[in-house]
Amino acid sequence: MFSLCKRIRVLPGIALAALLAACSPPPPLQIGFIGGLTDRNSDNGQSGLKGVTLAIEQFNRDGGLGGRMVELVARDDAQNRETAAQSAQALVDARVEAVIGPFTSGMAEVIVPITGKAGIFQVSPTITSMAFYGKDDNLFRINRTTRDNARDYAKVMLERGQKQIAVAYDVRNRNFTESWLREFEEAVASRGAAVVGRVPYESAPDVEFARVVRDMLQPQPDSLFFISGALDVARLAQQARRQAPRLPIGASEWASTEQLIELGGDVVEGLLIVQNYDRDDESARFKAFSEAYFKRFQVNPGYSSVSAYDAATVVLQALKARSKGETLKTAALRSGPYTGLQQEMVFDANGDTTRKVFFTEIRGGRYVKLP
Question: Can you give the pLDDT at residue 25?
């Protein structure tokens, strides 16, 4: 082809243009990304974008899709319903092959109907709400459900003697937080304990977190729990340490980012929180990823980075396996199981999977895995 392309430059007019076009590399294949990149809890979206970026860069260096490169088209949902709808439609209009994201269930509530109606295959790295479980749609989920996590939290907390628990939850991500709380209430009640306080609030710069914690303490709980993003958990923990320094504190998996430790400092020491990956993994595959991630971005990966990289793995492998005329969802269903960074991913017919998690406590400024 190379020698032919050199020779055709002597041809005139239309013939020359046509043959030169045939010798040009094919246009890149576009993959969409959507997540919160500018909102108050943008650490998840930004880390996820880095994970997807790294996966695509590595894929392209390995030759792409038979020599065709993959291009990432990223859009911000800003944790705002109107912005999310506009960004989702922009990806539909761009005719992307697939979408990776969103990263919160509240935004998925807006985005998934738009991309699904357009027939676009979508893989969310992190959403867990039961509203997206067991649905035969174009959505695959990398994460487990709020039911799975809430039940495991209930077991661990009750084993620690926490039986009268007060909960604060952010209604800005209502689809996730209310799903999580419902499952948690049922789980603790089945074990003879109770959620004795429920304090909703909407995340914003001017939230009076002192009042939120004060309301949590009204029913005299034996522990405090936060279903919120990392920024808010850090501020809630600060008030908890001031008003009830002896009470145990915990937070849902949503907050388990690097930002929680950076912002929380001493006030989040001892906080119970789950991780959906093993930070202490010494396997060659995970170490290679962590080193490549740090080299590329000068920060360590977090849980959304790992999940997003795994989500990109699913999309890219399905693209490679897709036959002519086949939908990407069909290709994805028959192309598994998928080798993730730490766990094998096996999807059922609805695009749901299971994922092992690891309970940790923050000790000495790091997440320490519980035995």
Answer: 75
